[in-house]
Amino acid sequence: MDNYLQKAYCMHQTVRIYAAITSNMVRHAGEIFNMYPSSLDAFGRCLTITSIMSCTYKNDDFINVIVKGEGPIGKITVEGHDGRVRGYVENPGVYFQNNNGTINIEMAVGDGEIEVIKDLHLRQPFSSSCELVKGDIATDFTYYFAKSEQIPSSVGLGVLFDKEAKVRAAGGFLIQVMPGCSDEDITILEERLKNLRPVTKMIEDGYNAEDIINEITNGDYEMLETKELFYECNCNKERFRRGLKTLGKEQLLDIKKDDNCEITCNFCNKKYTFSKSDIDDMIKELENEQ
Ligand code: ZN
Q1: How far away, in angstroms, is 86 Cα from ligand 1 center?
Q2: SS3 for 2-17, per residue?
Q3: How many A from CA of 82 to the centre of ligand 1?
Q4: Which of 69, 76, 139, 265 could form a disulfide with 235 if both were Cys (CB 3.0 to 4.6 A apart)?
Q5: Protein residues near ligand 1, an ion, with CB under 5 A
Q6: In which band, very low, low, confident or very high, does the pLDDT at 120 lie, cut at 50, 70 and 90?
Q7: Residue 143 C-alpha to ligand 1 middle, in angstroms?
Q8: What is the CATH number of domain 237-289?
Q9: Three-state SS at 171
Q10: What are 76-110's pLDDT values in tens digits?
């Protein structure tokens, strides 16, 4: 499996742990959008946490994670559904370095807020938001879960780059404390988390998802499931065609004045071309529908 997640229980099934390896997904996203390290670091972390979150809800629930930072990266959008994610950032070309040469993500993301929209197939999608407290995405989501979902959680996320600024590895974890967890177990867990190495270090040492769970739980866990994760865009020409048609006849006539009409998908950078005769067909269809 290229990208995957493992889910486990610990502390007498009162704590849920999800650990994910998303190296190929983040590398792929970096390539399709030609991203610079700070942008890709932030985007990669958002892809990882969204892919994990999409596996914590029921299979047919859709989530939309929007990090609205005021830093140069701008808005980061990621959609997730059952381990499948896709997204984009406003500015893929941001690269800030710290004095020690590491990639700076906090400045690149900046202050702002996280919004999570969940379509749980109720009458209206459910939306919750909270402010960005650090800009490293991991601390921000830890805060989000505590504040907006009232679930005490801990989030670790990381993207590791090599000397040529290419993605070497990416991944993360989400730990959620369920009701019924004893104070004693919480204290043990808190102590462990205090001493936990950054997830990037674990990934650097070649840890897989189970190794990360093993390190967090000190070997005391119960493995539940393994799930494959994907970067996947389900766009197609027909969908863009329908979108174009909704612009109406006047606008389409305007579009026809140019050469072929080319539309690029925000989520996968795929280009769709509509010729003048394609546009003519749409206009005819609109006239017939009247
Ligand atoms: Zn697409």
Answers
A1: 8
A2: CEEEEEEEECCCCEEE
A3: 18
A4: 265
A5: 233, 235, 265, 267-268, 270
A6: confident
A7: 31
A8: 3.90.1280.10
A9: strand
A10: 999 999 999 999 999 999 999 999 888 999 999 99
